[in-house]
Amino acid sequence: MDGNGRWAEQHGEARIVGHMNGVQGVREALTGCTEAGVRWLTLYAFSTENWNRPQAEVEALMDLLVRTVVNEIDELHQNSVRLRAIGDLDSLPANCRATLDEAIARTAGNTRITLTLALSYSARWEIIRMAKRLAGEARAGRLAPDAIDEKVVSDALATSGMPDPELLIRTSGEQRVSNFLLWQIAYAELWFTPVLWPDFRKEHLFQAILDYQGRERRFGKTSQQVATR
Ligand code: IPE
Ligand code: MG
After folding, report:
1. 191 in contact with ligand 1, CB cutoff 6 A
2. pTM above the 0.90 mark?
3. 129 within some domain
4. Could you tell me the residue range of the domain that residue 58 belongs to?
Protein backbone atom coordinates (compact mmCIF):
# COMPACT_ATOMS: atom_id res chain seq x y z
CA MET A 1 0.00 0.00 0.00
CA ASP A 2 1.99 3.00 -1.22
CA GLY A 3 1.29 6.59 -2.08
CA ASN A 4 -0.64 7.94 0.91
CA GLY A 5 1.84 10.79 1.40
CA ARG A 6 1.78 11.82 -2.26
CA TRP A 7 -2.01 11.66 -2.28
CA ALA A 8 -2.07 14.06 0.68
CA GLU A 9 0.38 16.39 -1.00
CA GLN A 10 -1.73 16.45 -4.17
CA HIS A 11 -4.78 17.36 -2.10
CA GLY A 12 -2.93 20.01 -0.08
CA GLU A 13 -3.34 18.03 3.12
CA ALA A 14 -1.03 16.74 5.86
CA ARG A 15 0.44 13.26 5.32
CA ILE A 16 -1.80 11.73 7.98
CA VAL A 17 -4.86 12.72 5.93
CA GLY A 18 -3.44 10.55 3.18
CA HIS A 19 -3.13 7.65 5.61
CA MET A 20 -6.71 8.21 6.82
CA ASN A 21 -7.94 8.07 3.23
CA GLY A 22 -5.85 4.97 2.72
CA VAL A 23 -8.34 3.11 4.91
CA GLN A 24 -10.75 3.31 1.97
CA GLY A 25 -8.19 1.48 -0.17
CA VAL A 26 -8.08 -1.26 2.46
CA ARG A 27 -11.88 -1.61 2.44
CA GLU A 28 -11.94 -1.80 -1.34
CA ALA A 29 -9.11 -4.32 -1.53
CA LEU A 30 -10.74 -6.50 1.09
CA THR A 31 -14.27 -6.47 -0.35
CA GLY A 32 -12.86 -6.93 -3.85
CA CYS A 33 -10.88 -9.96 -2.73
CA THR A 34 -13.89 -11.39 -0.93
CA GLU A 35 -16.09 -10.95 -4.02
CA ALA A 36 -13.44 -12.52 -6.25
CA GLY A 37 -13.08 -15.53 -3.96
CA VAL A 38 -9.54 -14.70 -2.85
CA ARG A 39 -8.89 -16.48 0.44
CA TRP A 40 -5.72 -14.73 1.59
CA LEU A 41 -4.97 -11.01 1.54
CA THR A 42 -1.79 -9.68 3.13
CA LEU A 43 -1.32 -5.94 3.47
CA TYR A 44 2.06 -4.34 4.04
CA ALA A 45 0.89 -1.69 6.49
CA PHE A 46 4.06 -0.72 8.36
CA SER A 47 7.62 -1.80 7.66
CA THR A 48 10.55 -2.14 10.03
CA GLU A 49 12.03 0.83 8.17
CA ASN A 50 8.90 2.96 8.71
CA TRP A 51 9.94 3.39 12.38
CA ASN A 52 12.50 5.88 11.00
CA ARG A 53 9.76 8.29 9.90
CA PRO A 54 9.13 11.44 11.98
CA GLN A 55 7.81 10.44 15.39
CA ALA A 56 4.56 12.36 14.91
CA GLU A 57 3.77 10.40 11.75
CA VAL A 58 4.59 7.08 13.41
CA GLU A 59 2.33 7.91 16.36
CA ALA A 60 -0.46 9.04 14.06
CA LEU A 61 -0.19 5.79 12.07
CA MET A 62 -0.37 3.68 15.23
CA ASP A 63 -3.41 5.66 16.44
CA LEU A 64 -5.03 5.22 13.05
CA LEU A 65 -4.43 1.49 13.21
CA VAL A 66 -6.09 1.23 16.62
CA ARG A 67 -9.05 3.39 15.59
CA THR A 68 -9.54 1.51 12.35
CA VAL A 69 -9.47 -1.92 13.98
CA VAL A 70 -11.91 -0.74 16.68
CA ASN A 71 -14.26 0.81 14.09
CA GLU A 72 -14.19 -2.03 11.59
CA ILE A 73 -13.95 -5.15 13.71
CA ASP A 74 -17.71 -5.81 14.00
CA GLU A 75 -18.16 -5.65 10.25
CA LEU A 76 -15.06 -7.74 9.62
CA HIS A 77 -16.37 -10.38 11.99
CA GLN A 78 -19.84 -10.33 10.40
CA ASN A 79 -18.21 -10.89 7.02
CA SER A 80 -16.25 -13.86 8.36
CA VAL A 81 -12.88 -12.18 7.96
CA ARG A 82 -10.10 -13.73 9.98
CA LEU A 83 -7.65 -11.04 11.07
CA ARG A 84 -4.01 -11.81 11.65
CA ALA A 85 -0.75 -9.92 11.96
CA ILE A 86 2.85 -10.72 11.09
CA GLY A 87 5.94 -8.80 12.11
CA ASP A 88 7.77 -7.73 15.23
CA LEU A 89 4.52 -7.19 17.10
CA ASP A 90 6.33 -6.76 20.43
CA SER A 91 7.66 -3.45 19.12
CA LEU A 92 4.15 -1.99 18.70
CA PRO A 93 2.75 0.36 21.36
CA ALA A 94 0.95 -1.59 24.10
CA ASN A 95 -2.55 -0.31 23.26
CA CYS A 96 -2.03 -1.14 19.63
CA ARG A 97 -0.88 -4.65 20.46
CA ALA A 98 -3.81 -5.18 22.85
CA THR A 99 -6.39 -4.02 20.29
CA LEU A 100 -4.88 -6.27 17.65
CA ASP A 101 -4.67 -9.29 19.95
CA GLU A 102 -8.32 -8.89 20.88
CA ALA A 103 -9.45 -8.56 17.25
CA ILE A 104 -7.31 -11.52 16.21
CA ALA A 105 -8.71 -13.71 18.98
CA ARG A 106 -12.28 -12.67 18.21
CA THR A 107 -12.05 -13.47 14.50
CA ALA A 108 -9.84 -16.57 14.81
CA GLY A 109 -12.65 -18.95 13.81
CA ASN A 110 -13.68 -17.08 10.65
CA THR A 111 -13.17 -18.83 7.35
CA ARG A 112 -14.12 -16.62 4.40
CA ILE A 113 -10.83 -14.75 4.00
CA THR A 114 -7.69 -14.27 6.06
CA LEU A 115 -6.60 -10.65 6.24
CA THR A 116 -3.01 -10.47 7.43
CA LEU A 117 -1.53 -7.12 8.41
CA ALA A 118 2.24 -6.91 8.11
CA LEU A 119 3.18 -4.57 10.96
CA SER A 120 6.70 -3.69 11.95
CA TYR A 121 7.49 -6.29 9.34
CA SER A 122 10.40 -6.77 7.00
CA ALA A 123 11.47 -9.88 5.17
CA ARG A 124 15.05 -9.60 6.39
CA TRP A 125 13.85 -9.32 10.00
CA GLU A 126 11.82 -12.47 9.45
CA ILE A 127 14.64 -14.34 7.70
CA ILE A 128 17.08 -13.52 10.50
CA ARG A 129 14.54 -14.71 13.07
CA MET A 130 14.06 -17.91 11.08
CA ALA A 131 17.83 -18.50 10.97
CA LYS A 132 18.10 -17.97 14.73
CA ARG A 133 15.21 -20.35 15.37
CA LEU A 134 16.65 -23.10 13.19
CA ALA A 135 20.14 -22.62 14.60
CA GLY A 136 18.70 -22.92 18.09
CA GLU A 137 16.84 -26.10 17.16
CA ALA A 138 19.99 -27.53 15.61
CA ARG A 139 22.10 -26.66 18.63
CA ALA A 140 19.54 -28.29 20.91
CA GLY A 141 19.80 -31.46 18.84
CA ARG A 142 16.20 -31.29 17.59
CA LEU A 143 17.05 -30.46 13.98
CA ALA A 144 19.67 -32.02 11.75
CA PRO A 145 21.19 -29.36 9.44
CA ASP A 146 20.70 -31.74 6.52
CA ALA A 147 16.99 -31.87 7.25
CA ILE A 148 16.60 -28.17 6.47
CA ASP A 149 14.53 -27.91 3.30
CA GLU A 150 12.00 -25.46 1.87
CA LYS A 151 9.27 -26.65 4.19
CA VAL A 152 11.43 -26.31 7.32
CA VAL A 153 12.33 -22.77 6.31
CA SER A 154 8.75 -21.84 5.37
CA ASP A 155 7.45 -23.20 8.66
CA ALA A 156 9.94 -21.08 10.61
CA LEU A 157 8.84 -17.82 8.94
CA ALA A 158 6.11 -15.51 10.20
CA THR A 159 3.85 -16.72 7.37
CA SER A 160 3.98 -20.34 8.51
CA GLY A 161 0.84 -22.13 7.37
CA MET A 162 -0.05 -19.51 4.78
CA PRO A 163 0.17 -20.21 1.05
CA ASP A 164 2.78 -18.27 -0.92
CA PRO A 165 1.30 -15.17 -2.59
CA GLU A 166 0.20 -15.68 -6.19
CA LEU A 167 -0.06 -11.99 -6.97
CA LEU A 168 1.80 -9.02 -5.49
CA ILE A 169 0.33 -5.58 -6.11
CA ARG A 170 2.20 -2.37 -5.43
CA THR A 171 0.54 0.98 -5.91
CA SER A 172 1.89 4.49 -6.54
CA GLY A 173 4.17 3.67 -9.46
CA GLU A 174 7.15 2.46 -7.43
CA GLN A 175 8.60 -0.74 -8.85
CA ARG A 176 10.30 -2.24 -5.83
CA VAL A 177 9.58 -4.97 -3.33
CA SER A 178 10.89 -3.02 -0.30
CA ASN A 179 11.66 -5.95 1.99
CA PHE A 180 8.23 -7.60 1.71
CA LEU A 181 7.87 -11.41 1.86
CA LEU A 182 11.11 -12.01 -0.04
CA TRP A 183 11.15 -15.77 0.43
CA GLN A 184 7.44 -16.18 -0.19
CA ILE A 185 7.22 -14.23 -3.47
CA ALA A 186 9.76 -16.44 -5.26
CA TYR A 187 7.15 -17.23 -7.93
CA ALA A 188 4.58 -14.51 -7.35
CA GLU A 189 3.33 -12.51 -10.29
CA LEU A 190 4.00 -8.80 -9.86
CA TRP A 191 1.59 -6.01 -10.72
CA PHE A 192 2.47 -2.34 -10.53
CA THR A 193 -0.03 0.46 -10.88
CA PRO A 194 0.43 4.25 -10.76
CA VAL A 195 -2.76 4.56 -8.69
CA LEU A 196 -2.08 6.03 -5.25
CA TRP A 197 -3.29 3.80 -2.42
CA PRO A 198 -6.12 6.10 -1.20
CA ASP A 199 -7.50 5.99 -4.77
CA PHE A 200 -7.29 2.20 -5.01
CA ARG A 201 -10.68 0.69 -5.84
CA LYS A 202 -12.09 -2.76 -6.45
CA GLU A 203 -11.86 -2.12 -10.19
CA HIS A 204 -8.08 -1.76 -9.90
CA LEU A 205 -7.89 -5.04 -8.04
CA PHE A 206 -10.03 -6.78 -10.67
CA GLN A 207 -7.84 -5.33 -13.41
CA ALA A 208 -4.80 -6.83 -11.68
CA ILE A 209 -6.52 -10.20 -11.22
CA LEU A 210 -7.62 -10.30 -14.89
CA ASP A 211 -4.07 -9.58 -15.98
CA TYR A 212 -2.81 -12.27 -13.61
CA GLN A 213 -5.27 -14.79 -15.05
CA GLY A 214 -3.92 -14.14 -18.54
CA ARG A 215 -0.35 -14.92 -17.55
CA GLU A 216 1.34 -18.24 -18.01
CA ARG A 217 2.97 -19.40 -14.79
CA ARG A 218 5.70 -21.84 -15.76
CA PHE A 219 7.58 -22.31 -12.47
CA GLY A 220 10.77 -22.93 -14.42
CA LYS A 221 9.19 -25.36 -16.88
CA THR A 222 8.67 -24.87 -20.62
CA SER A 223 5.50 -23.46 -22.08
CA GLN A 224 4.72 -26.83 -23.67
CA GLN A 225 5.10 -28.71 -20.40
CA VAL A 226 2.73 -26.32 -18.70
CA ALA A 227 0.17 -26.57 -21.52
CA THR A 228 0.05 -30.38 -21.43
CA ARG A 229 -0.01 -30.67 -17.64
C1 IPE B 1 2.11 4.15 2.39
O2 IPE B 1 2.12 5.46 1.95
C3 IPE B 1 1.66 4.02 3.81
C4 IPE B 1 2.68 3.55 4.77
C5 IPE B 1 3.90 3.18 4.47
C6 IPE B 1 2.30 3.50 6.16
P7 IPE B 1 3.40 6.39 2.11
O8 IPE B 1 3.30 7.11 3.41
O9 IPE B 1 4.64 5.59 1.89
O10 IPE B 1 3.18 7.41 0.91
P11 IPE B 1 4.30 8.15 0.04
O12 IPE B 1 5.25 7.12 -0.48
O13 IPE B 1 4.97 9.16 0.92
O14 IPE B 1 3.51 8.80 -1.08
MG1 MG C 1 5.88 5.29 0.28
Report:
1. no
2. yes
3. no
4. 4-120+164-212
Ligand 1 centre distance from Cα of residue 3 (Å): 5
Report whether residue 46 contacts ligand 1, using a CB cutoff of 6 Å: yes
Q: How far is residue 63 from each of residues 58, 76, 86, 94, measured CA to CA in Å?
A: 9, 19, 18, 11
The number of C-alpha atoms within 13 Å of 85 and in the hemisphere containing its C-beta is 24
Determine whether 149 is exposed, middle or buried from the number of CB atoms within 10 Å of its CB (0-12, 13-18, 19+): exposed
Instruction: Say if 112 falls within a structural domain.
Output: yes
Q: Count of domains in the chain?
A: 1
Ligand nearest to the CA of 49: 1
Residue-by-residue pLDDT tens, the chain, 229 positions: 999 999 999 999 999 999 999 999 999 999 999 999 999 999 999 999 999 999 999 999 999 999 999 999 999 999 999 999 999 999 999 999 999 999 999 999 999 999 999 999 999 999 999 999 999 999 999 999 999 999 999 999 999 999 999 999 999 999 999 999 999 999 999 999 999 999 999 999 999 999 999 999 999 999 999 998 6
Structural domain includes residue 226: no
Which secondary structure element, helix H or strand E, spans residue 191, and what is its range?
Answer: strand 189-192
**What is the Cα–Cα distance from 124 to 143, expressed in whole angstroms?**
22
* 25 belongs to a structural domain: yes
Is the beta carbon of 44 within 6 A of some atom in ligand 1? Answer: no
Ligand 2 center–CA 186 separation, angstroms: 23
Any idea what the CATH number is for the domain that residue 25 is in?
Answer: 3.40.1180.10
User: Does the annotation count 110 as an active-site position?
Assistant: no
